[in-house]
């Protein structure tokens, strides 16, 4: 059992927000066109698979067809006979280098190549290294592995049964498949509240297993240089520095002899936070063979073996007054972690930030209890486009609010309003121990409802019911809060490393700047957004600033990009580093202006320093930069640069109000999302266009989750959704045209008042969709449907509720009327 | 793509292709490659020789001749989708073509390849069954014509011999009072059918259904025919009640299984819904007006 640390660092310890001018040179609030897009659009991006080195070999993994099996023998010599095959590695070979296992981020130990027992389908059992990919695949085909198959268990509930097969017989003292129990909140107070209150509702829900499915799969090129004794790994990494530290810890190669480069990355979404066996095998092979080794995952390998997300079976209970005031919430969770505990979250948070489950509501009593279990499925539980299990927590509370509203026959918007944390209450201390930095939930909801003309929609819904229409209309709301931007470092760490982040700003003699950040972009637009922060702080033109990231040899140490932490943490570091540069610039400006530094003022509007009371006596940052190198003040260090490592005092709490309107075909259960309106509040918006883009992308992924995505297994442990024919991703055809709007409630503790945004839509949209579908049928008693809401799931509910229809009910043939065109 | 090694032949005539197929063991025809290439890439199919028919121009046509709509074996889904002849006279073909996969797949994949693949989830088989179509094949012993009803044996297994080339897919040319349609339910764009129904009706002078054809997708071991439902319709005047009755029969005679595309009961029910919808479309196209009620379905 573990208890989470609490977040009590005072907000006023950190640097405070300043007012922003948006000076027109690409500073805060400007829709600067993304700097990175030129190379992406013109096909000049460089992804890991584009990296080619002289003498480079290719690695292919041999994977187990079984989900649970003991390996009896592995015959590698037939593979060695294939033309072009250079080496075949098994666990035995890795043992010699002490590389047979690797630690997970949650203190478990995972086989790199299976040593004894396969624990999930497609786990890697051997690796073939060859001169090209074909030879490697030919070789992999010839490796002969004989397995003694064992009963597999894929369902979390069944894994808890007494007679369930024991998966982790490699863990000392492990006698069942239980990993940990976690709880939060006050159980007794919550139970008492339930006894006292007149209205209680309960619902079981499964937040299904899904996969981040980035367009680019995982891969690396490992290159050990025996001349320099240095290992360079180009890899698909969302956290290059953390990965360097882990590589060093696992391999024993000193950290300064390892360079991790994360070049252009085609989407991460949490999938590229963990270390996978392929990386380790490629690095080991390169070390042994002294040649570069490339390993690139295939799509099925990515879907079947790399980290999944979610897979929480939850029971939610809410107790309320008759007029809809929620007084208590209670949650029971069964968490399927797969064959290893390899979730990716701060180490002190085995359940991530799940204890945000009171959401946007002021609820006095809350309690959650969780059991996590091993199953014969791929390991994971990563934060897919969200901050560590906030998605599951918010889904739960947003669904429960709707369940309560239906029970009370109240408008769900009204129930929300009645329970929102009022804006005056911020910073707000939640029952489960978070300090929400800022929010105005009523405002966001009111704006969203006004934008969609909520009243008119409700009237239309009523009218359709009265007319017994052939399509049902449903209106779903979600008024979520997010929790992003981990640290603070004392509470949040990855493998012991505190979750700060960093930025180095160097202004060159000609007044241009190079900015290096500890985070890394996988498409979020860091090269633009971070340049805008510097442009704002230093009065420079955004085109004069280059942002670099992803190379551990040159960038300052950082913990990486995931969980919407880049802007809250590295963005803060960038503002602070820029301000340090500005402080030094003031001295240089004073020297140039022949004034006392105390008499020199910074004018944000013009981006220049001037003598107090004499705005005409001014120097620009370009002139200051020249001064720093060519006319440095006596007694001052020459140059103009600064670095900042930023440990955030708290997380930021972006929020939003979403409205989803669906139409349901009563004959087929087919869903049409007629409207999706998203009001988001991420505090100060640095580049509104990028913010909107992030919201669109996140909504598409959230809708994919709600409508079609799911990783499924059969009883034998076969992954039955291991390719894009069966793991369904939404396309433009399934996604409506999004409508977006925003409110701005700055974070009080962030130097530029910004919060993270990339993940709000993935967190907020699934409950909006499910609430809408349930809303269409709630008049007939439907209270819940599990995602994904495929048409068969919806139709079953229609049928059970007596709402399903046959076309013959409405067709009339040969009657009066025009000759149809039959093109409808 | 990491296929196992294979030999690649590119004949430019049917004769050449047929003699290649006859002379080498383990030869596999490659048409649009939209099924065959993925199988090879996963090494689920490892042919030693591939006879690539993409260079056989004589097989690329859609035309009406000698009482048939004839589709040559190299005709792509997109060619059917874009054909004016099809749009004017063959509603079921016009409905089905744009429902297949996505534009890239339709630009490469062929109608004949799809039928040779004999995936029970393929759309063309049902259409050809509903039309009482035929498949024309060439082998070492010459040409033979196989009724669609006898062509599909098992999933991915047809009456075609290993050394035979399918050269043409054909259906009887549309009659004066004929209408046909195809309705498909899928999980998302680019996906195979959860269920699909092809219908064809020929009306006699007083508007009675003289001939009815119904082909089903994804609800049996092969594309299948709803013979009972056809029998319900024949000799009746089209009406909502008759459609309902036919739909019930079709529902009864199909054999769906629960899989990733949906549960069996749902598919069965959808066979009923789609049968009614596709019958309404076909009857309307045969010249009888249909009113569809409040929902534009
Ligand atoms: C993502 C995706 C989605 C798809 N969705 C659909 C869908 O919704 N509906 C649908 O119906 N289909 C769908 N398909 C399949 C597609 O229609 C294929 O085109 C079709 O199955 C095969 O046609 P092909 O020309 O590509 O044949 P190939 O892939 O080249 O060949 C298929 C098989 O037929 C054999 N063959 C081909 N031509 C001949 C011939 N002339 N004589 C003898 N044998 C021959 C080959 O040897 C092989 O065994 C989809 C495919 C993909 C990849």
Features:
heterodimer, A: 824 residues, alpha+beta, Aldehyde Oxidoreductase, domain 4, Aldehyde Oxidoreductase, domain 3, 3 domains, 7-stranded mixed sheet, 19 helices, disordered N terminus, B: 297 residues, Uridine Diphospho-n-acetylenolpyruvylglucosamine Reductase, domain 2, Uridine Diphospho-n-acetylenolpyruvylglucosamine Reductase, domain 3, Enolase-like, domain 1, 5-stranded antiparallel sheet, 4-stranded antiparallel sheet, 15 strands
General description of the model:
The complex is a heterodimer of chains A (824) and B (297). Chain A has three domains: 3-30 and 500-646, Aldehyde oxidase/xanthine dehydrogenase, molybdopterin binding domain (Aldehyde Oxidoreductase, domain 4); 48-150 and 218-296, Aldehyde oxidase/xanthine dehydrogenase, a/b hammerhead (Aldehyde Oxidoreductase, domain 3); 309-485 and 651-800, 2-Layer Sandwich (Aldehyde Oxidoreductase, domain 4). Helix content of chain A is 27%, strand content 24%. Chain A has 19 helices and 33 strands. Residues 1-14 and 816-824 of chain A have low confidence and may be disordered. Chain B contains twelve helices and 15 strands. A five-stranded antiparallel β-sheet of chain B has the order 4-5-10-6-7. In chain B, strands 11-12-13-14 form a four-stranded antiparallel β-sheet, sandwiched between helices. In chain B, strand 8 (152-154) and strand 9 (157-158) form a beta hairpin. Chain B folds into three domains: 7-51, Uridine Diphospho-n-acetylenolpyruvylglucosamine Reductase, domain 2 (2-Layer Sandwich), CATH 3.30.43.10; 59-172, Uridine Diphospho-n-acetylenolpyruvylglucosamine Reductase, domain 3 (2-Layer Sandwich); 178-285, CO dehydrogenase flavoprotein, C-terminal domain (Enolase-like, domain 1). Chain B has helices at 14-23, 36-41, 77-82, 84-89, 91-96, 103-108, 111-117, 124-130, 148-151, 227-233, 240-253, 264-285; strands spanning 7-9, 27-30, 49-52, 62-65, 68-72, 134-139, 142-147, 152-154, 157-158, 165-172, 178-186, 193-203, 209-217, 224-225, 290-291. Classes of the chains: A alpha+beta (824), B alpha+beta (297). The interface between A and B is large, with 50 and 50 residues. Strand 33 (812-813) of chain A pairs antiparallel with strand 15 (290-291) of chain B. Bound molecules: flavin-adenine dinucleotide. Residues 28-36, 38, 53, 73, 100-101, 105, 109-110, 112-114, 116-117, 119, 122-124, 160, 165-166, 190, 192 of chain B line the site of flavin-adenine dinucleotide.
């Amino acid at each position: 059992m573990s208890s989470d640390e609490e977040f009590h660092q005072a907000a006023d310890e950190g640097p405070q927000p300043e007012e922003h001018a948006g000076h027109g040179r690409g500073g805060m609030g400007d829709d600067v066109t993304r700097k990175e897009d030129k190379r992406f659009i013109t096909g000049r991006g460089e992804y890991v698979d584009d990296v080619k080195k002289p003498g480079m070999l290719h690695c292919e993994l041999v994977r187990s067809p079984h989900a649970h099996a003991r390996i009896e023998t592995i015959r590698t010599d037939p593979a060695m006979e294939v033309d072009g095959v250079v080496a075949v590695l098994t666990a035995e070979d890795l043992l010699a280098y002490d590389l047979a296992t690797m630690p997970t981020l949650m203190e478990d130990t995972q086989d790199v190549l299976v040593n004894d027992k396969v624990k999930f389908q497609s786990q890697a059992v051997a690796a073939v290294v060859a001169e090209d990919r074909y030879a490697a695949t030919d070789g992999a085909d010839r490796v002969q592995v004989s397995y003694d198959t064992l009963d597999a268990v894929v369902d979390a509930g069944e894994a808890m049964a007494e007679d369930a097969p024991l998966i982790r017989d490699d863990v000392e003292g492990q006698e069942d498949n239980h990993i940990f129990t976690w709880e939060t909140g006050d159980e007794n107070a919550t139970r008492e509240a339930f006894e006292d209150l007149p209205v209680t509702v309960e619902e079981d829900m499964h937040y299904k297993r899904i996969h981040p499915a980035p367009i680019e799969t995982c891969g690396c090129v490992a290159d050990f240089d025996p001349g320099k004794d240095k290992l360079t790994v180009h890899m698909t990494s969302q956290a290059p520095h953390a990965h360097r530290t882990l590589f060093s810890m696992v391999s024993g190669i000193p950290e300064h002899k390892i360079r991790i480069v994360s070049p252009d990355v085609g989407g991460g979404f949490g999938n590229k936070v963990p270390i996978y066996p392929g990386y380790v095998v490629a690095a080991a092979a390169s070390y042994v063979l002294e040649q570069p080794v490339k390993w690139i995952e295939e799509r099925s390998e990515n879907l079947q073996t790399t980290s999944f997300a979610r897979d929480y079976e939850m029971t939610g209970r809410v107790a309320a007054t008759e007029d809809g005031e929620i007084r208590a919430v209670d949650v029971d969770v069964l968490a399927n972690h797969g064959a290893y505990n390899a979730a990716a979250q701060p180490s002190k948070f085995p359940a991530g930030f799940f204890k945000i489950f009171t959401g946007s509501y002021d609820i006095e009593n809350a309690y959650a209890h969780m059991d996590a279990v091993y199953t014969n499925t791929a390991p994971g539980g990563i934060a897919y486009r969200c901050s560590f299990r906030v998605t599951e927590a918010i889904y739960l509370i947003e669904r429960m609010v709707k369940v309560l509203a239906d029970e009370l026959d109240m408008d769900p918007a009204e129930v929300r309003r009645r329970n929102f944390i009022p804006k005056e209450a911020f910073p707000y201390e939640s029952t489960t121990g978070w300090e929400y930095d800022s929010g105005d939930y009523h405002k966001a909801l009111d704006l969203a409802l006004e934008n969609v003309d909520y009243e008119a929609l409700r009237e239309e819904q009523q009218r359709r019911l009265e007319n017994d229409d052939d399509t049902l209309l449903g209106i779903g709301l979600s008024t979520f809060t997010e929790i992003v931007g981990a640290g603070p470092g004392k509470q949040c760490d990855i493998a012991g490393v505190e979750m700060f982040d960093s930025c180095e700003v160097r202004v060159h003699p000609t007044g241009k700047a190079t900015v290096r950040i500890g985070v890394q972009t996988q498409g979020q637009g860091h090269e633009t957004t971070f340049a805008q922060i510097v442009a704002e702080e230093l009065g420079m033109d955004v085109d004069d600033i280059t942002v670099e990231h992803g190379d551990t040899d040159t960038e300052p140490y950082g913990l990486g990009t995931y969980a919407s932490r880049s802007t809250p943490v590295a963005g803060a570091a960038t503002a602070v580093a820029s301000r340090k540069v500005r402080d030094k610039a003031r001295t240089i400006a004073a020297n140039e202006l022949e004034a006392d530094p105390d008499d020199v003022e910074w004018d944000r509007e013009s981006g220049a320093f001037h003598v107090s009371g004499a705005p005409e006596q001014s120097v620009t940052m370009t002139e200051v930069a020249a001064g720093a190198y060519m006319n440095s003040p006596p007694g001052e260090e020459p140059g103009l640069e600064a670095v900042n490592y930023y440990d955030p005092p708290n997380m930021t709490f972006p929020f939003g109000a979403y409205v989803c309107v669906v139409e349901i075909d009563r004959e087929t259960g087919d869903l049409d999302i007629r409207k999706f309106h998203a009001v988001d509040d991420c505090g100060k918006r640095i580049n509104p266009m990028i913010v909107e883009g992030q919201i669109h992308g996140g909504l598409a992924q959230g809708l994919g989750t709600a409508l079609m995505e799911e990783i499924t297994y059969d009883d034998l442990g076969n992954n039955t959704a291991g390719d894009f024919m069966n793991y369904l991703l939404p396309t433009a055809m399934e996604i409506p045209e999004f409508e977006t709007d925003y409110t701005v409630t700055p974070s009080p503790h962030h130097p530029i008042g910004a919060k993270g945004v990339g993940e709000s839509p993935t967190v907020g949209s699934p409950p909006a969709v499910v609430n809408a579908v349930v809303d269409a049928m709630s008049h007939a008693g439907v209270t819940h449907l599990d995602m994904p809401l495929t048409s068969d799931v919806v139709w079953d509910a229609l049928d059970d509720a007596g709402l399903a229809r046959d076309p013959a009910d409405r067709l009339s043939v040969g009657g009066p009327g025009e000759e149809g065109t039959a093109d409808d | 793509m990491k296929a196992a090694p294979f030999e690649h032949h590119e004949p430019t005539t049917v004769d050449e292709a047929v003699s290649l197929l006859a002379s080498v063991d383990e030869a596999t025809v490659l048409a649009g490659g939209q099924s065959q290439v993925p199988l090879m890439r996963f090494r689920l199919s490892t042919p030693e020789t591939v006879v690539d028919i993409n260079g056989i121009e004589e097989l690329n046509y859609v035309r009406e001749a000698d009482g048939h709509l004839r589709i040559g074996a190299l005709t792509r889904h997109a060619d059917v989708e874009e054909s004016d002849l099809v749009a004017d006279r063959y509603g079921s073909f016009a409905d089905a073509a744009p429902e297949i996969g996505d534009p890239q797949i339709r630009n490469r994949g062929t109608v004949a390849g799809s039928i040779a693949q004999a995936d029970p989830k393929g759309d063309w088989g049902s259409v050809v069954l509903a039309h009482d179509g035929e498949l024309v094949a060439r082998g070492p012993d010459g040409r033979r014509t196989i009724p669609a009803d006898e062509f599909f044996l098992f999933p991915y297994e047809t009456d075609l011999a290993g050394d035979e080339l399918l050269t043409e897919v054909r259906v009887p040319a549309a009659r004066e009072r004929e209408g046909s349609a195809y309705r498909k339910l899928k999980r998302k764009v680019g996906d195979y059918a959860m269920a699909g129904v092809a219908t064809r009706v020929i009306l006699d002078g007083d508007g009675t259904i003289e001939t009815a054809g119904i082909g089903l997708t994804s609800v049996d071991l092969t594309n299948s025919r709803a013979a009972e439902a056809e029998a319900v319709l024949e000799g009746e005047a089209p009406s909502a009640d008759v459609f309902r009755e036919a739909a019930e029969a079709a529902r009864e005679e199909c054999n769906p299984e629960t899989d990733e595309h949906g549960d069996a009961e749902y598919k069965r029910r959808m066979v009923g819904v789609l049968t009614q919808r596709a019958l309404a479309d076909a009857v309307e196209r045969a010249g009888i007006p249909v009113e569809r009620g409040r929902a534009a379905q």
